[in-house]
């Protein structure tokens, strides 16, 4: 994000629990929304549950008893497994009343954008707000960060990069100085400054959340500036924001000829030649740590036997082409899903990796259509996750059905991968069906496709789209 005061560019960078940065004189005191993340890996809470009650108590406490003087609060409410952890950090130049206003806005925004999520983060220009089921005090969150930049380039890129990098390094040293404490005897972990580069004056800020010690803050800021080239190379302004600033938990890339590549080639050739296409599912691994390769495929519930092998072969080829040398990747086709990973995921719900597609055409009676299709999908979810719904001795974890709504016949499918037990299948489907309004509100057709479960529904027969059409691919550089 780029802001100006007159003709003065402001370079904003935020780190570590990396936070906002603006000019040293607080030239911009807006409370603009920047970004949010609903952390689906932590699950969904039910209305009236112990978790929801603890969350409401924690949020009320933050608003009425928050320490807005220092701009930071970290607290927890409840006992495991319903403990709620809450954290906010206001920008270093936005404490007191500005902090309270931003946190109140963030709380409202988080409830609206991530309803029912046990874990969520939202960023505004003057504050960061996070709820979680995981205690992260003094710990760096390695997953959640993003950057914004001004698309306009500077005239002398090399000079600008060199001088702004020097400014940011200077501010990092100041922010992480253990003698840099505030009136409450707390580490400040914040610094702002300016520098003239040619005819331009550049402002910058760096900040860490106040639960970190100065050494951890220093390491984080040092790392996050490595993202400078991705974010801000030659740009007039930019910022990196996060609740973390390190990707040390990446799956990364494998090298040609490495042990990982050999294991991957072996396991992929195995699943295409002797995969269990009768029940449309395979989960297997090859190699020893740190070169383990985990591979999973799941064919659509009506596409086993002869339809499954061609889709898997196509997916293997597609994944190699679209994600060359990635240790973690997922690809979805109309009749199958294929995933490779360096991390074991058997019987674990993947809340993170999903997407949706929808038919742009609307139904005439939106309210009736939504109500009836939701009822159909709930019925199918119950059927798919029924422990008595067996194929031989295996859980089917799949159901399809149809319903007439007015003059239209609506077909639908739900499915879970066969590594899940029936209770986890129901939990996964329950979570993914919450995305119905986002995906399919009043639409003639739609689907939400995840790694662990999916649903599809539309006013056309489901088999009308049976071509081996590539839908989506995700090349992961982080853990899956």
From TrEMBL:
<feature type="domain" description="Gnk2-homologous">
    <location>
        <begin position="242"/>
        <end position="345"/>
    </location>
</feature>
<dbReference type="Pfam" id="PF01657">
    <property type="entry name" value="Stress-antifung"/>
</dbReference>
<feature type="domain" description="Gnk2-homologous">
    <location>
        <begin position="32"/>
        <end position="136"/>
    </location>
</feature>
<dbReference type="InterPro" id="IPR050581">
    <property type="entry name" value="CRR_secretory_protein"/>
</dbReference>
<dbReference type="InterPro" id="IPR002902">
    <property type="entry name" value="GNK2"/>
</dbReference>
<feature type="domain" description="Gnk2-homologous">
    <location>
        <begin position="351"/>
        <end position="462"/>
    </location>
</feature>
<protein>
    <submittedName>
        <fullName>Gnk2-homologous domain</fullName>
    </submittedName>
</protein>
């Amino acid at each position: 994000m780029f802001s100006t005061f007159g003709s003065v560019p402001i370079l904003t960078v935020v780190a570590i629990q990396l936070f906002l940065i603006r000019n040293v004189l607080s030239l911009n005191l807006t409370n603009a929304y920047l970004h949010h993340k609903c952390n689906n890996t932590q699950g969904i809470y039910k209305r009236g549950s112990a978790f929801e009650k603890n969350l409401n108590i924690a949020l009320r406490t933050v608003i009425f008893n928050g320490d807005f003087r220092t701009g930071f609060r970290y607290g927890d409410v409840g006992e495991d497994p319903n403990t709620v952890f809450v954290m906010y950090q206001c920008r270093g130049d936005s404490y007191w009343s500005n902090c309270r206003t931003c946190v109140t806005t963030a709380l409202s925004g988080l409830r609206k954008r991530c309803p029912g999520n046990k874990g969520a983060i939202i960023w505004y220009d003057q504050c960061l707000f996070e709820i979680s089921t995981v205690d992260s005090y003094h710990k760096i969150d390695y997953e959640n960060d993003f950057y914004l930049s001004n698309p306009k380039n500077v005239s002398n890129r090399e000079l600008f990069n060199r001088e702004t990098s020097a400014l940011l390094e200077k501010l990092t040293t100041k922010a992480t100085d253990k003698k840099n404490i505030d009136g409450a005897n707390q580490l400040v972990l914040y610094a702002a400054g300016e520098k003239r580069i040619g005819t331009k004056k550049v402002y910058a800020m760096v900040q860490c959340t106040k639960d970190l010690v100065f050494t951890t803050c220093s390491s984080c800021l040092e790392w996050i500036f490595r993202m400078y080239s991705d974010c801000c190379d030659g740009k007039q302004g930019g910022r990196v924001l996060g609740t973390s600033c390190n990707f040390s938990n990446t799956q990364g890339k494998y090298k040609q000829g490495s042990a990982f590549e050999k294991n991957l080639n072996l396991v992929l050739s195995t699943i295409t030649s002797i995969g269990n296409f009768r029940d449309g599912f395979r989960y297997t691994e090859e190699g020893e740590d740190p070169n383990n390769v985990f591979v999973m495929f799941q064919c659509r519930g009506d596409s086993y036997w002869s339809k499954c092998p061609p889709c898997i072969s196509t997916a293997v080829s597609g994944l190699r082409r679209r994600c060359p040398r990635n240790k973690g990747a997922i690809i979805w086709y109309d009749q199958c899903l294929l995933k490779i990973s360096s991390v074991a995921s058997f019987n674990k719900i993947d809340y993170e990796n999903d997407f949706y597609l929808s038919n742009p055409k609307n139904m005439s009676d939106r309210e009736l259509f939504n109500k009836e299709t939701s009822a159909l999908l709930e019925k199918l979810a119950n059927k798919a996750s029924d422990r008595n719904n067996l194929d031989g001795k295996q859980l089917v974890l799949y159901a399809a059905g149809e319903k007439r709504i007015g003059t239209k016949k609506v077909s639908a499918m739900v499915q879970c991968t066969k590594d899940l037990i029936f209770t986890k299948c129901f939990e996964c489907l329950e979570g993914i069906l919450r995305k119905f309004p986002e995906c399919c509100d009043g639409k003639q057709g739609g689907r939400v496709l995840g790694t662990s479960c999916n649903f599809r529904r539309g006013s056309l027969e489901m088999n009308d789209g049976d071509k081996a059409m590539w839908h989506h691919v995700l090349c992961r550089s982080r853990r899956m």
